[in-house]
Amino acid sequence: MFFEKNGGLLLQQQLSSNEGNIEKTKLFTKMDLEKATDNYNANRILGQGGQGTVFKGMLADGGIVAVKKSKLVDESNVEQFINEVVILSQINHRNVVKLLGCCLESEVPLLVYEFIPNGTLYHYLHDQTEEFPITWEMRLRIAIEVSGAMSYLHSATSIPIYHRDIKSSNILLDDKYRAKVSDFGASRTIKVDQTHLTTRVQGTFGYLDPEYFRSSQFTEKSDVYSFGVVLVELLTGQKPIRSTDAEEDRSLVGFFLQAMNEDRLFEVLEARVLKEGKEEEIITVAMLAKRCLNMIGKKRPSIKEVAFELGGIRASIGSSSLQHNCEEIDFVGGDNTRHSGTDYSSTGSILNSVAYSTDADPLISN
């Protein structure tokens, strides 16, 4: 009964049109996940959001997972849940959280993800501790990794995928502090002949594209705007909605753009960024953020351009490393599996920043 209520038939129908992905989406039993999470013990909670609660779990084989327990859903939300399963089953990229499977036989539907141990980028930027400060080097690498994953979603899959809720709390950090984009509940796949998606406005205040807010038309440039806000967070260390008495200064975007227009960029940067970042690197990232935050969507760069420009900053720091990596990879007729073990997050590698990343073997091929 719950299997049908939670969209099991819809999921089977959706996945059957992509037969190669059915085996990759494992159906867990209710008992599997109750055991894994110690009956959803409050001590196992990793995080809570608008769509549900995430628990840490251990499977019978010892594997550590994150179990997302959706809130009680009505029929419209069932479709959103199944949408997340279908979209994630089609994504294979090192900087996107991997979906391992789902469970539809419990009262509320459950998603099972790979476990990402080091929490959210939001936590490291806004609840910093002296034990682990997030360096400029890390900030730049995370920006490259996230833009590379978004570029893959927008253009390396045969059907573009728009995330629709890019924010620092949806960027997780793994054991090596590599970025992993998560939470695809609001995502949509867009047919190539569609230029935008008209829908009820959803997203997170502070990251929401004002053009989308006004028109209800979501485009790829709406994701670019949200990423621009993340870039400003990385530069300033401040939250998208600032804690200040002055109403006009509450929006981080407005505060940042005003500082840029008045040539006061270096007054609003976080101290660590100011201390560790090279002036030209900081200015390049800030100018890129400003372009991403243009009020007119068409004037924003594509996320592919953003990824390429961010990768260019890394390349200028270690051009010899870049040349070495490029010599290893043959893009023309490229063998996508041949170099999958190479670590492209190393300094100087631009490859992490473009949609053709060799470790991003799309399950939906071009």
TrEMBL record:
It holds the Pfam family PK_Tyr_Ser-Thr. It is a single-pass type I membrane protein. This is Protein kinase domain-containing protein. GO terms for biological process: cell surface receptor signaling pathway. It comes from the Eukaryota. Gene3D superfamilies: Phosphorylase Kinase, domain 1 (3.30.200.20), Transferase(Phosphotransferase) domain 1 (1.10.510.10). One of its GO terms (molecular function) is protein serine/threonine kinase activity. Keywords: ATP-binding, Kinase, Membrane, Nucleotide-binding, Serine/threonine-protein kinase, Signal, Transferase, Transmembrane, Transmembrane helix. Its main location: membrane. The keyword Signal applies. Residues 40-317 form the Protein kinase domain. The keyword Transmembrane applies.
